[in-house]
Amino acid sequence: MANTPIKLNDNTTIPLLAFGTGTALYGTDAEHLVTAAINAGFTHLDGAQAYKNEDSLGAGIVAAGKARKQLFVTTKLAKQPEDKSVRDSLVESLAKLQVDYVDLFLIHTPIYYQEPGRLKAVWRQVEAIKKEGLARSIGVSNFRPAQLREILDGAEFPPSVNQIEFHPYVYNDLLPTLELQKQYGIVTESYGGLSPIFRFKGGPLDPVLTSIANRLSETTGKPFNEAEVLFLWQREKGVVIVTTTTKESRLAGYLSILDAPKLTDDEINLIDEAGAKEHHRHFVRVTILED
Ligand SMILES: NC(=O)c1ccc[n+]([C@@H]2O[C@H](COP(=O)([O-])OP(=O)(O)OC[C@H]3O[C@@H](n4cnc5c(N)ncnc54)[C@H](OP(=O)(O)O)[C@@H]3O)[C@@H](O)[C@H]2O)c1
Fold first, then answer.
1. Which residues are tagged catalytic?
2. How many domains does one find in the chain?
3. Is the CB–ligand 1 distance for residue 160 below 6 Å?
4. What is the pLDDT of residue 81?
5. CB 173 within 8 A of CB 281
6. Which end of the chain is more exposed for a tag (fewer CB within 10 A), N or C?
7. Does ligand 1 lie within 6 Å of residue 193's CB atom?
């Protein structure tokens, strides 16, 4: 399977693997790594107003010198004061990113908009941005079924994606969200997908991932590690993978999964079963957990 883009419910497409400028790069100058990621083969860049480095994401894009239409650029809406329009906020982001439009614009988290009616009102403003063409596609992040239902009710456009923490230790908990998303063709973007190997190391997944990495290394003759196995599991679940690194040396390994063979059904089941033995969620502050 090559780097086939995934279709979105608004007839656009999204590349399978994204380089993100949050988490390890939060608040840092990401220019050099963004340029390195694009030069290595990443076409999908995931930024956010809240990461406080959109200007360096923009500088990295410019330095790489790739045609705008060959790149897929995402940003996300940070907490807005009520008297500032979502459009004004996005226009500031576009200037920092040095682009005329983003490919994807997301509401970063519903946590910011818990007053009655506010989430729906913000979504209406996001829909207007799509109509104007400042964002090709629109979506949400960290939404559970309750918040998805709230904006789907009467929406002109359903969100095209929901970007959420996604790995085997939260997979079971996500099933109701994934089921609802299926009904509306909402694609999942994963973040935190490598959490089992460095945020929750020592759990039941460890030996399973190592054994699958060894199997892949033997059958392909190329080295595979546990991170790449987790990416392949995400690919099998049909999600868009958003990851990052502070180390240029990891970029080629990340990209190698685009051409890697499929996991077997048995391997997917073993990962699902090991993940279901424990529940771990790292990014609790951005998600309203009670539905
Ligand atoms: N929407 C949201 O609320 C939200 C929340 C979180 C993240 N995100 C987005 O998703 C992006 C990625 O998030 P994430 O950092 O949580 O993704 P992740 O894919 O779970 O983790 C990436 C980290 O994994 C480490 N890593 C890679 N290979 C490894 C290995 N073999 N062994 C040990 N560690 C390894 C890297 O460390 P090194 O730096 O040392 O290479 C890197 O910093 C963010 O940058 C952001 O764009 C969005």
1. 51
2. 1
3. no
4. 87
5. yes
6. C
7. yes
In a domain, 207, yes or no: no
Q: How far apart are CA 163 and CA 76, in angstroms?
A: 10
* 118 in any annotated domain: yes
Separation of alpha carbons 280 and 174, rounded Å: 12
Q: Which domain holds residue 153?
A: 6-194+237-250
CATH number at residue 31: 3.20.20.100
Residue 212 and residue 226: Cα distance in Å, rounded?
8
User: Which of 224, 242, 249 to mutate to test ligand 1, by most ligand atoms within 8 A of the CB atom?
Assistant: 242
- Positions in the chain short of pLDDT 70: 1-3, 291
Ligand 1 centre to CA of 44 (Å) is 15
The pLDDT assigned to 291 comes to: 61
Residue 108 known to bind ligand: yes
Look at residue 260 and tell me if it is in a domain: no
Assess whether the C-beta atom of 242 lies below 6 angstroms from ligand 1.
yes
List, in sequence order, every residue forming a beta bridge with 46; answer none if it has no partner: 20, 74
SS3 239: coil
Q: Is residue 64 part of a domain?
A: yes
Q: In this predicted structure, what is the pLDDT of residue 164? A: 98
Query: Which residues are CB-contacts of 51 (< 8 A; sequence separation ≥ 6)?
Result: 21, 22, 25, 26, 27
Residue 198 beta carbon below 6 angstroms from any ligand 1 atom: yes
pLDDT of residue 53: 98
**CA 23 to ligand 1 centroid distance, Å:** 6
Q: How far apart are CA 252 and CA 267, in angstroms?
A: 24
41 contacts: CB under 8 Å, gap ≥ 6: 251, 255
Chain-centre distance of CA 241, in angstroms? 6
Give Cα 60 to chain centroid, integer Å: 19
